[in-house]
Design brief:
The chain is built from twelve helices and 13 strands. The chain is of the alpha/beta class and 326 residues long. The chain has two domains: 2-135 and 310-324, Rossmann fold; 140-307, Rossmann fold (3-Layer(aba) Sandwich), CATH 3.40.50. The strands form two sheets. It has a seven-stranded parallel sheet with strand order 3-2-1-4-5-6-7. It has a six-stranded parallel sheet with strand order 10-9-8-11-12-13, sandwiched between helices.
């Protein structure tokens, strides 16, 4: 089968959509399918990164068997325009704020009423894969979850990852707080190529003895080793839960608000709130408080692992996509 994946990345959009789609693309390729990406040329678009993984990129629609769409700016109007070129359409969404013309819809987030919020937004025949049991985890995460070590709740090693582009410059706030609160034996700082401050961040890390990582493919390993992570909302929230990593989340985009607030209610993350209200002092207070939060962090770890249990197997989402192709 031939697949076209329609997605984008940029300094404004972030890298989450593309990273998620790469997980899908690699799995499809390993199952013998041909996969092409359709991406726009944008600042921080990650096109070179996608090509480095062995995938071709197009900039207009071609005939194909399946089109997979992961894009907040695409809805039923665009999907109907490409119907003549495809046999089936698969949509990945998080927002449930627009109608789709698709044969399968996947939303791995946990939000209020997640089981029914797409009922009036997709055709009757559309199969819906909803909730964390359909998490699209890369093989590295599945492997790490099988080999997790026991954690005591103490925090000696922390991980900072605020998304590939970090549009609100949270990483700089956090490392500023860290330099004033040196009480961790190991600090990993992860950024993407589209982070406009990556050179400055790397310089600070070198000066302070932090471990700097840019556009990596071993994030799961760093998450599994860490005792606590300071992160953003979005899909990385569920990745942290999947490997039992207690974390804080800062809401850096409106589309992260509901899922982050829900995750906090479920006890799987520590919600710091909207980025404009989160300051260097907020992060300093967070860092100081960790030594007294052992029981909370242990419970957060357990809750995250339980929430992301996948009764149908870690790749049930892939089975469903392949079933659509039949």
């Amino acid at each position: 089968m031939n697949f076209i994946i329609r997605t984008d990345a940029s300094a404004k959009i972030g890298s989450g959509h593309v990273m998620r789609c790469l997980t899908i693309a690699i799995e499809l390729r390993e199952n013998g399918h041909e996969v092409t990406f359709w991406m726009k040329e944008l600042v921080g678009d990650m096109r070179e990164f996608v090509q480095s993984k062995g995938f071709s990129i197009i900039t207009e629609m071609e005939n194909t068997d399946i089109c997979i769409i992961d894009h907040y700016d695409i809805d039923i109007k665009w999907e109907r325009k490409i119907r003549p070129f495809v046999k089936k359409i698969v949509v990945i969404d998080d927002l449930a704020n627009r109608k789709h013309d698709c044969d399968l819809l996947l939303d791995q987030n946990v939000v209020p009423n997640f089981e029914h919020r797409y009922d009036d937004l997709v055709p009757v025949h559309c199969e819906k894969l909803l909730g964390p049991r359909f998490l699209m985890m890369r093989e590295e995460f599945i492997r790490e979850r099988k080999n997790l070590s026991y954690k005591t709740g103490g925090v000696n090693r922390i991980l900072i990852f605020m998304g590939g582009s970090d549009p609100t410059s949270e990483t700089l706030k956090i490392i500023s707080a860290l330099t004033q609160h040196q009480s961790f034996s190991y600090v990993d700082v992860v950024v993407g190529n589209s982070n406009p401050h990556k050179t400055k961040i790397e310089g600070i890390c070198m000066k302070e003895g932090y471990h700097f990582h840019c556009q990596i493919d071993y994030l799961a390993s760093l998450m599994a080793k860490a005792d606590f992570s300071i992160g953003a909302g979005g899909s990385a929230t569920w990745e942290r839960c999947f490997v039992g990593l207690p974390s804080s989340s800062t809401i850096v985009a409106e589309n992260q608000r509901i899922s982050t607030e829900t995750a906090e209610k479920l006890g799987v993350i520590w919600n710091l709130g909207w980025h404009e209200q989160v300051t260097v002092d907020t992060y300093k207070d967070l860092l100081r408080s960790l030594k007294d939060k052992k029981e909370l962090l242990i419970n957060m770890r357990k809750a995250g692992l339980k929430l992301t249990e996948q009764s149908g197997g870690a790749k049930s989402w892939l089975d469903a996509i392949l079933e659509v192709t039949k």
